[in-house]
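Dear Dr. L.,

I hope this message finds you well. Following up on our conversation about the binding site, I have prepared a predicted three-dimensional model of the protein together with protoporphyrin IX containing FE. For your records, I am including the exact sequence and ligand specification that went into the calculation, followed by the structure tokens. Please feel free to forward this to your student if that is useful.
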Amino acid sequence: MKLDSKIPAGPLADKWNNHKAKMRLVNPANRRKYHIIVVGSGLAGSAAAASFAEMGYEVSCFCYQDSPRRAHSIAAQGGINAAKNYQNDGDSVRRLFLDTIKGGDYRAREANVYRLAQVSTSIIDQCVAQGVPFAREYGGLLANRSFGGAQVSRTFYARGQTGQQLLLGAYSALSRQIGAGTVKMYTRHEMLDLVLVEGQAKGIVTRDLVTGEIKAWASDVVVLCTGGYGNVFYLSTNAQGCNVTATFRAHRRGAGFANPCYSQIHPTCIPVHGEDQSKLTLMSESLRNDGRVWVPKNSADCTKPASEIPEEARDYFLERKYPSYGNLAPRDIASRAAKEVCDEGRGVGQVVDGKRLGVYLDFSAAIKRLGESAIRERYGNLFDMYENITGENAYRQPMRIFPAVHYTMGGLWVDYNLQSNIPGLFVGGEANFSDHGANRLGASALMQGLADGYFVLPYTVTDYLAGVGLSGRPSVDRPEFKAVVKEVEERTHWFLNNKGTRSARSYHKELGKIVWEKCGMTRDKAGLEGAIRDLQALRDDFWKNIKVVGAGNQLAPELERAGRVADFLDFGIMMCLDALTREESCGGHFRTEYQDAGEAKRNDEAFAHAAVWKFMGEGKLPERHTEPLTYEEVQFTTRSYK
Amino acid sequence: MSDSSCCKNCQPASIGKKIIMALSGLVLAGFVFGHMIGNLTVFKGAAAINEYAEWLHANPGLLWVARSVLIVSVIAHIWSGVLLTIENRIARAGGPAVEVTRRASLSSRTMPYSGVIILAFIIFHLLHFTFRKIALGGQEFGPDVYKMIIAGFSQPAVAIFYIASMILLCLHLSHGISSVFQTLGLRNERWRGRLDVLAIIYGWVIALGFISIPLAVLLGQLK
Amino acid sequence: MVKPSEQSSHDSERTLALRLRVWRQLRGGDGHFEEYSLAAVPVSASFLEMMDMLNEQLIREGKDTIAFDHDCREGICGMCSMTINGMPHGPIPGVTTCQLHMRNFRDGETITVEPWRARAFPVLKDLAVNRSAFDKVIQAGGFITVRTGSATEANNTLIPKPIADEAMDAAECIGCGACVASCKNGSAMLFVGAKINHLNILPQGQPERERRTLAMVKTMDDAGFGNCTNYGECQAHCPKGITLDVIAKLNRDYLRARVKEFFSSTGKARKGGE
Ligand SMILES: Cc1cc2nc3c(=O)[nH]c(=O)nc-3n(C[C@H](O)[C@H](O)[C@H](O)COP(=O)(O)OP(=O)(O)OC[C@H]3O[C@@H](n4cnc5c(N)ncnc54)[C@H](O)[C@@H]3O)c2cc1C
Ligand code: HEM
Ligand code: HEM
Ligand code: SF4
Ligand code: F3S
Ligand code: FES
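The resulting structure of the complex is given below.
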């Protein structure tokens, strides 16, 4: 597999501008003759589709929800970073770049990250012009806050709904183009495969979720912005429909999948309450600014109400282990610490299959210090949400929180132009292996999604189109399309007719348990090897005993779920394999064998590279390739939050 | 609306109809107030109200201006009211099997009904007192409006019908008046509560003002 | 709105037995209610998790599952849409179907579950309806025209905090459609008013103000929504607390746009950015 990162020459700070200047253009009169398929209408997809259409291309955009406005970007709460330095606290493009590289534990691609920091400022301008109601100061200027333990205030936010407001901004730009007829929007359409013609991505095959029609679409270029694969864990903060199908199908067609084992665990989620739970709800990290995290010192106290546990019997473990950062320790560190104390049997809350998985997030001190009204002022909506879900009043008793999968740094491998190793297949947003390395900084994914969609893809895709010329688009009558349509139809037919016994959800749950246990917050050789065996067995059982009810010509949620779980099963195996073969700890990937005193121990000699997996055929293990990460300007240092 | 799109194009938009509703409603609401005040002179004795009636008819020019404004308002009001009601029935598509009301007031939900009955009342009322064709036992009163009123309301059935209609008018106004402000964009969360109260008061003032007359006749206070 | 904390500490143990009357309908066909009974529903489960349990039960029985819309399950995507015992999004004000929890129901209770009912929201299957009419309204004018990269420095437009906050209040609408489902006229005024308010009060939104208002109202009417007669049910069922103010302001802006149009020499509302 050829992995040329195509990083432009020249000093880091000038790479992007020089590259932009060199890229080819398409004559305006010719643009409408090119057809661009964008799969996904999240921040990355909507922004890209709208921008392409404004430039004059013919665009088709697909999403599985009933409206582009519902993409999971909508759920982002905290905020979006940008190196505006409005607060005059010494922020700069270079500082944002360095923080992101360090946050990613030196497993991100330097040039991409620098570009991300550079365009971050234009994103805010763009969104404000669209009418995104960011928080303001009384003087009318934009407000900022510091987020995820950053030393500068560079995070822009709209109450607790930043993602919603940014997505509605991008959605309005997209809607304007749909109204103008320059974008054809296909909602409730799920991409089920990618079509290659002579080695180039030239179209997709979709299923209309309402009518069940399976259809091929031809284009000059395909852009995937289909989000992350966090749902492989079954329980995550992702939406129910989030899937790996789009990217994994592309992977099966030859696209390299990079760093699947990098997933981010968010420390402040509402704990699991029972077997029938379908998702985990995130609560903004900002809670850690005023909440103190603790568990009882001895497990005997775990059944008692918090109020009956005296101060000296409480273990404020984050403050104890990380005095300088305390309760604001980075996500991966805070999450692991919580897991450790629960594994020691000191967790609190309900028992879910044999364990108490929860730690206290206690506001009593803050309430004493600032008064309840001040806390209500700051977190009122979060406290309400918590009470609504758990039935507990967090003003009276401490919240219970536990980490949950929240973001996936891995994704399809792309070069500097966001093009995968399949020519004509571009990937943006969370779907690519992105700029976050082994761990993402808070408020950086929204930034990356919009950067890709508004400010990178429009240039790089144009350059590609200029290269392929006008004769590029094949007809859907070509055998390549017919063959893929046939495959998809057969697969669908098989699901609907298999005389199985088990529901897709039951397989998904079992898959989730395995990867969460063995490939979650901490991993080790034996566990991962066992997980791979178990998953292979589960996969074989799935293809015998899966039971799918419903009709092919109606909404068929079970059919959709079965297809997604099938891909998650194969993907889960690849994820564990990646975790197994990365014999180091870095960022969110923590191998217990590689640590000094609980701190992740990187191995920069052997593993300063992106691991890129090549599909080797049905049921076979994928093959590991690497893209070395060479740093021209930053030196490796060890993260220390002690 | 696909099937009625033809007439959709030659009629004002939803909000347009609402504004017509509001303005015409306002005129009508204003009229009933004036009319009530005028009628209350009946308590000052026969002379007073007969003078008032005379004064009304003194200059036909003005009278007809007023009448035409009224007629236009009633027509506009009914026309848009009927359109709104029909379109809304269609748009609701039957509604849920279990119907729950959290907030909509009784008066708001009965606007079309109270309205139609008021219309029926107005027709009856015009035949009764303006054209003097019915419910007066064929007597002639000439300029003696006072006598006519007494005669009119001495028949309990008529009086009761008047009273009942006034109560429906009250119902109609107690949503309508507050609704006017909303429709014209002159209402907000701070003021909505107060305007709702104002509307209810207005409705009752009008109703009680009018009712006092047939009631007084029934109870033999007015002879 | 939620049960006191004491109770919830036993949440994990408490369960309910329920009877469900659920609307079943195939695309193009007529619908009907079907009755199901479901045992041992934990009170800590969400309403949709209860529906998942019911569907798993149906799968075991080899029956087709109940189709319903849902995605984020945290009250922000606006996809979930069920009328529960006659109330869009169920009995708890300010809460979406996906955020509704079973501790708000009684043991042995019969729960009636229906789709959004409105002419502009045709049923696709069972509880899932087609809300694309909302998207069409936005496509008609629910945007501020700005080409990618054409924006000026963000802090060049100063926006007083109160204005920004007011815009944000309106912008919180999640496009779920409960306002239409609860309105006895099937009117979309709360949804449209929310978007109009968000964009029409911001300085960036002024150039297209009249055009936007007229175009969105026209599209709303053509989509077959009803006319507002100020019932106020929509506000009472809106999970995001959008208030009738947005409808009053929409009415005002519409009147304003019509008047301006009337007096403009072309007889057309200003076209704005396009
Ligand atoms: C609860 C939560 C909170 C977060 N908070 C923050 C935050 O505060 N700050 C921050 O920076 N980041 C945050 N993130 C991360 C960030 O929101 C996401 O990484 C980002 O929004 C991803 O955007 P996207 O456009 O790449 O994908 P998405 O927004 O997920 O969009 C995916 C799109 O692809 C479509 N799609 C997917 N599969 C298919 C298919 N097979 N066929 C057709 N269409 C398909 C979907 O319909 C959807 O339109 C948060 C994430 C979560 C889950
Ligand atoms: C003649 C038959 C009548 C009919 C069919 C009728 C019907 C209606 C209807 C359907 C509404 C709309 C409700 C709403 O939008 O809130 C309405 C509003 C109103 N009506 Fe009537 N009505 C009638 C007579 C009257 C009369 C006689 C008066 C005054 C005395 C009146 C005063 C009002 C007012 C003030 C409103 C509020 C307008 C608004 O909604 O903004 N109506 N009527
Ligand atoms: C007890 C209550 C009422 C009494 C005693 C009363 C009395 C009268 C009288 C005496 C006239 C004739 C005036 C004249 O021609 O010299 C009249 C006319 C009229 N009344 Fe009433 N009225 C009452 C209630 C109402 C109400 C509630 C309405 C409207 C909803 C109404 C609408 C009219 C109209 C439209 C006319 C015709 C005015 C004209 O000549 O143009 N009346 N009324
Ligand atoms: S206004 Fe409220 S009810 Fe209507 S769509 Fe928006 S959020 Fe839903
Ligand atoms: S309920 Fe309907 S009538 Fe108007 S106020 Fe709300 S839209
Ligand atoms: S599922 Fe997203 S709001 Fe309910």
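In brief: The pocket of protoporphyrin IX containing FE (ligand 3) is lined by residues B 32, 35, 39, 53, 56, 67, 70, 118, 122, 125-126, 129-130, 145, 149, 162, 169, 210, 213-214 (CB under 6 Å).

With kind regards,
A. P.
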